[in-house]
Design goal:
Elements (H helix, E strand, L loop, with lengths): L5 H27 L6 H12 L3 E2 H8 L3 H13 L3 E5 L7 E5 L1 H22 L4 H25 L2
Antiparallel strand pairs: 1-3, 2-3
Helix pairs in contact: 1-5, 3-4
Amino acid sequence: MSSDKPEEKCAASVMDTIPLLMRFIRADMRENSAASLSIPQLRTLAFLKRNPGASLSELAEHLGVTCATASTTIERLVQRDFVQRADHPQERRRVVLNITDQGKQHFEQTQSQTRAHIKDILQDLTKEEITQIEQGLTLLKDVFSKSEVKKAP
């Protein structure tokens, strides 16, 4: 990196840190999933929890997969009663997806166990270090939330 601009250094830190955190979270959630769900299945539950009534194409776009692949993921979750699939009332060819109470409970339990594991990792930090991390994450979330709003149609 030839420049000393703080935003470039920060961008490099974000690019180095976020993938490391995501790998940890994904591996831990996979390990904590009592139903042994795959990462795409866990991501599907998370997406449907945030986006009730989403379509298959919206899910596929979120996962970065084809509709056929998303459909296979949904089928497995429907079989386990974690997701409910229904026809759209006005559009015959559209499918509406919702997380079931059982799916929500499983996802929240898995997420809670991972949160506890992260807490254990952070416990040796000082209160000041914890505050710094929280402030940095809040700022990062705010910055990227604004950028996400700009991209929305």
